[in-house]
Amino acid sequence: MHLKKLAALAIAFAILGSAACTGKPGDHGETGVVDADDLPDPTLHAADAVVVAVSPGHPLAVAVPGLGHLTAPSGAFASEGRIVVRKLTSDSKVSDLVVDGGIGVDVSFEDTSVSSPITIMFDDPSVRQRVPQGAVPVVLHRPTGGTWETKPLMFTPDGVPYLTTKEFSPNLLGWVPIPDWLHEIGDSIGDFVTQRTDPRACPGGAPGWSSVKSKSSLVHLCAITNKDNTGAVRAELQVQSNRRFVTWVSVPPGYDYLWVDGMPDKIREFVNRTLGGHDRDQVLLSGNGWFTAGYRQPATTQTKQFNGYVDGWSAAISVALPAMGVTFNEGVYGAIVLIRKCASKLAGKPSWERGKDFFVCFIEQSLSNLVDPDKAYATAMDLYGEAGYAKSAENALRKSIGRLRLLGKLIRVIGLVGVIGATFPQLPDLYKQWGSGLAGGFTLGLKAAPAVPAPPPPPADQPAPPAPPAPPAPADRTAIVSYDRMRGGAPYWGRATKGWQEFTAVSNTITTVGVTWSNTNYGPGARLDGISTRISLCEGVNTALADPCSGRIADGYTTVINQADTRIDFGDVSVTPGRRYTVFYYQPTVGAGSWDFYWWSCSCPHPGRNSSNLSDQNQIIVLGFNR
């Protein structure tokens, strides 16, 4: 079978929570409670009755024209008697989810009862013509005195649907249409398995003391030279995914820097902890995503071992994103909000059984979070504690509401669908093969710096050369103040998810910014390890954006000092003296909604707590120097 077809069925199978069935009765799960609007309410019409004599010692085989056959083995009836078979036709209004196929059967019993189930074989050729391609056949059953419900069908090896049951109030053939986008999810998974990426342009020019070797097709590699602010040379390895699905890369320690496209360090470290406790040296790499790692020349020759791999977490995100209908950049933070509660389903070595449990949990968590759409944002704020990433998560969840709700309905109506697993038992193998053979190592070799021989001592009859002059004192990188309202006693404060303050650059280099956050749950001046604030240096303000920082030129996280000067060193950031810039600072990563910042100037009605929208001359400091 074509791989994309397999993948399409795999994802439908997995997300609907189906079990890998063998075709035996009882291998499937029960359906859930179904809303009345999701099921049709057929009007039934019965054909003339067919009366058949039965007894415990004889098997049953009754043809029902236009439908198929009723069959049962010897011993199916408790005593001699008769069964009355009526072919049913029906008509009904179209329901939201399940289609009434218009044919069925009802059976009543005279002077006997059933001892074991009877099988309804839907093997008339006209049945296959009724059920649209790609739909999932079901039976609509109405218990005596009850309301309509659905029952999943099983399949023979050649694909004939059947129902084995002892309940013979009306049973109608029906089906659940699977929307095109659900099949497209499968196509996406097929693409994940088969497609590769084009490598990014790479200028090359790595230091001569570095070398790269790779045994993995999982990534593209490029080595270049990178210099720090002092001109010291570093070997930079650029690593780009050669897959369309999400992978991990383990990065050997000792790097001078590690930068991941689209994911700041603090958020990346948080994401890693949330996804099964991966450490800070693991990079979650989106399909076609990339990162860089830089190393200095060591004193002894070293080989840095990298490794690319796929695990249950990365596979979960790869499937969750297309299920939500979002890309990695659009939806990874929203997907994590949902999948983190399902972590126990992926404990241990990834397997098909754990994968099925995870997908069901994922949909259930989705529906739980989206009962009230505002809950999605509140959950994201609790998780990320920072408005920009929480807003990204909220947007992804809101975009996905319709798809996820339909998936939830399909679970309730169809239950653990045995149809796909019975027809395509190789689907579990596809899941297992997804991550097989992908792990691959690659190395960055670093040759030792050559030893510098000591100069020979001068001859005994010559004086020693004069000592070299002392190096000049390093520049004071915080000597020039561009803005300073960092002092106690500010008369105004207020709650906010972010603050910003414009200033005019006095120096040509900005190095340090200090801000102030206050939370009365902590003591004044307390260093709050594990709680950080994001600080950005921006070219301007655009309030039309969710994050109004326009032209971010420096960005980072630093540990909060409560009610005091919380500083970050950006390194040496070039700016233009006399030009206006803006400092943005975002509420700390714990206790969202409980943080105040201070300001000195305000058209406020009174001192004390006010709306942060009225703030001016915020309590921050901006320092730098001239190069």
UniProtKB/TrEMBL annotation:
Residues 450-476 are annotated as: Disordered. It comes from the Bacteria. The keyword Signal applies. Residues 1-20 form the signal peptide. Residues 452-474 have a biased composition (Pro residues). Keywords: Signal. This is ZU5 domain-containing protein. It comes from Catellatospora chokoriensis.
